[in-house]
User: Fold this.
Amino acid sequence: MKKILVTGAVGQIGSELTLALRERYGSDNVVAGGRKTEPSPQLRDSGPFEWVDCTNLGALNEAVKKYKIDTMYHLPALLSAVAEAKPQMAWHVNINGLYNALEVCREQGCAIFVPSSIGAFGLSTPLDNTPQDTVQRPNTMYGVTKVAGELLCDYYHKRFGVDVRGVRYPGIVSNVTLPGGGTTDYAVAIYYEAVKGNKFTCYLKEGTYLDMMYMPDAIKAGIDLMEADPSRLKHRNAFNVTAMSFAPEIIFQEIKKHVPDFEMDYQVDPVRQAIAESWPNKMDDICAREEWGWAPEYDLPKMTADMLKVLRERHARGDF
Ligand code: AKB
Assistant:
């Protein structure tokens, strides 16, 4: 049975991925690693929890030894908009933290999952049907750390034989933990405002298409890729994966089918708009489909119906 450490377990992806991993591999076999934010009672009480800062190599090494970890899901990262506001911190967490995780995995023979992002692309990338292997010249600190991270991961695989694999996540929509400081966050916030009966003000322009994915598919991607037969993998870091592509007016119209008097206007944030315009409109994820059977379950209508159902229940309970 695997022994897994999830670093960044209290974050947007980690808080749900950790629970899914516990269900699959047994609660005692999945350690949730947090740095500062208090875990939810569910995350803290459903299995081992350890305070571990990935920028501290010694602490990370100790945690891996203590729990005899053989697989790491390494999730800590500053997202795109906040990385533009704090570029030095973004480099420190996204790159120095990743370097530490790779070093620990090299020394202790662990496999490791490292998420990359649509942020690894830039304006000179073909933005429609973005190929798996293409130009990657991002002009944001987030993008720089994501491309450097992909290259570092491939280097650790080739040079040291570390079993490191990753996906380029698009914007992730979830009904549990809010994202913090990303460019795609509007696609989460819009559902909360619709459920609260508020008008939504969108910080991206009409017509700004981006790839997106519902959290259950994001979790499935991470688990399926780590369970894939390595002999089938021609790529490793990192696979394009997508489930849908939409612009603000498209998700708005989909929500309106369920909330007829929902309203939206625009107040464009130039920083996030420029980032969004440098990212693909829609990626081609054929390599993930062919090499490890990637197939998402949720499209926009199915995701919207589920998001609204869950958020309405949470709203009725007074969660937000
Ligand atoms: C962000 O918007 O920064 C992230 C991402 C697409 O990597 N959600």
